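Sample intake sheet
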Amino acid sequence: MKALIVRGGWEGHQPKEVSELFRDILLEEDFQVEVADTLDAFLDVEKLKTLDLIIPVWTMGEIQKAQVDPVLEAVAEGVGLAGCHGGMCDAFRECVSWQFMTGGQWVAHPGGADVEYAVNIKRGSSPIVEGITDFNVKSEQYYVHIDPAIEVLATTRYPTVEGPHVTNGEVDVPVIWTKRWGRGRVFYNSLGHHADVLEPAHVRTIMRKGFLWAAAGKAVAKDSNEPSYVEALKGMF
């Protein structure tokens, strides 16, 4: 299988270190992996369609229509999309089409980077989290606005720290989810502020299984009778 990792944006999220960790996971699964340091890697839609998986590792950037449209089309045609933290769901704050495809957008992390919180696995929700038990992490606790169509695989409970959000009472916010974009599969994990958050075996396993699940959708799409959504994308945004 073939994967493209596109890294860059805000250096505080360690795009190089995270992308190297992801490349190692993919190489262990016998992927052919290309790593690009420019969003122009998205320009060639026909090349993107030859891939099984696209992994963005790019935070707080700006993407042009000519760069995002090929990704929207390639994923709609069956290419998998997977990523973590701000590298995927805080990649392009002004690009609503990206947010529609990925299923969510970061809006806050109350308490900053040193919050201790629980990640609660939704039992039986997906093979991606099968065998994973609830665990604690010390990092940014992402509060995300989400697409109601996502399939939630894990959540975290707020409030953990004080702030104006506490007057709403307790709420569970998704941490890990999947969704579909046309024929393509989308996987996201909000953990990953720094590479070390992704290194524990249980988190690395979740990312590995998420990558494999998203990439496997390409073959399923090829053999299905699902219609093409390319024409439907025109004029949507």
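Comment: Helices lie at 15-28, 45-48, 65-76, 85-89, 96-102, 195-198, 201-223, 230-233. The longest helix spans residues 201-223.
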